[in-house]
Amino acid sequence: MGNDRIEKAEKWVLPAYSVILTMSLVCCTAAAQQIAPVTSQNSPSVTVAKSQGEKETEREIQKQEQSQRILGVVPMFGTTSRQDPPPLTASQKFHLFAKSSFDPFVFVSAGIQAGISQSQNEFPAYGQGMAGYAKRYAATLGDSTSGSFFGGFLYPVLLKQDPRYFRLGQGSAKHRIGYALAQAFVCRTDKGGRAFNYSSVLGAFSSGALSNAYYPPSDRGFGLTMSRTGISMIYGSAGGLVDEFWPDIHHKFFEKHKKKQPTP
Fold first, then answer.
1. Which of 113, 170, 213, 222 has an alpha carbon 20 to 30 Å from 56's alpha carbon atom?
2. Count of structural domains, the chain
């Protein structure tokens, strides 16, 4: 009887992920269309003051920032070294979410994580073989997409918080490490101030709660949801360290090396 329930639950994994992904994109589009005009109405002076040339310059800067990668592979699209950039509109937050969530690296990374999970027999109810791998892959991709959707788009739009990581870029290493670790809990608002990062915390919790829809019955529940939320926040803090220091590492070991090479 128990095995029948597990098998039935497993059949819902891939359909559930498809529904979740579709609903996410529909919600994103609807929210962007509804909230974007409100944002422009709340700050008419800023909109009027910007010339077309300034807007074009800002678009180019954002395009460059959202092309950043570690070693040309790992995305760093949500990182900026600017101290006072203009806030992102709802549509720009959606664009950042979509670009970050559906980058080819995300799919490759999910495949690697699913393989490791299967080799360690995590979520044994998923089974082994290609069917088990497909379920683990879908679950991993679902976690990644939902986390980015809630924490990188939906809550930042609703709460008017900026989902980007703002590099400190200067000061002692100790101070910068503390700053980077704290960014999972402290964020910049659209008005330019600082606030508790409700978007990150609520996004991690919402993603963990949603995973109960496609994880095996033995891996569901409030306790496991809170555990996944905590793990997600830890990963977020670790990611802040990478965002903060990678440009320095790249400059020291790669750009200087290029300058030392003789020009032909």
1. 170
2. 1
What are the phi and psi torsion angles at 187 (to 5°)? Answer: -135, 170
Q: Which residue has the tokens 């919402």?
A: 206
Query: Which of the 8 DSSP states describes residue 162?
Result: E
CA distances from 86 to 47, 200, 262 (A): 11, 20, 40
137-165 per-position pLDDT tens digit: 999 999 999 999 999 999 999 999 999 99
Question: CB-based contacts of 71: which residues, under 8 Å, 6+ apart?
Answer: none
CB 194 within 8 A of CB 188: yes
Distance, in Å, from the CA atom of 211 to the CA atom of 205, rounded to the nearest integer, reads 10
Dist. CA 77–CA 69, nearest whole Å: 7
Please provide the DSSP assignment of 172-200 as one string. Answer: -HHHHHHHHHHTTTEEEETTS-EEE-HHH
19: pLDDT strictly greater than 50: no
Neighbours of 200 (CB within 10 A): 26
SS3 call for 80 = strand
Strands 161-162 and 186-189: antiparallel
Helices (H) and strands (E) in the chain, counts: 12, 7
Prediction pTM value: 0.74
Place of tokens 């008017």: 160
Q: Which domain holds residue 253?
A: 2-260
Q: Are 134 and 14 in contact (CB under 8 A)?
A: yes
- CB atoms under 10 Å from CB of 4, counted, come to 8
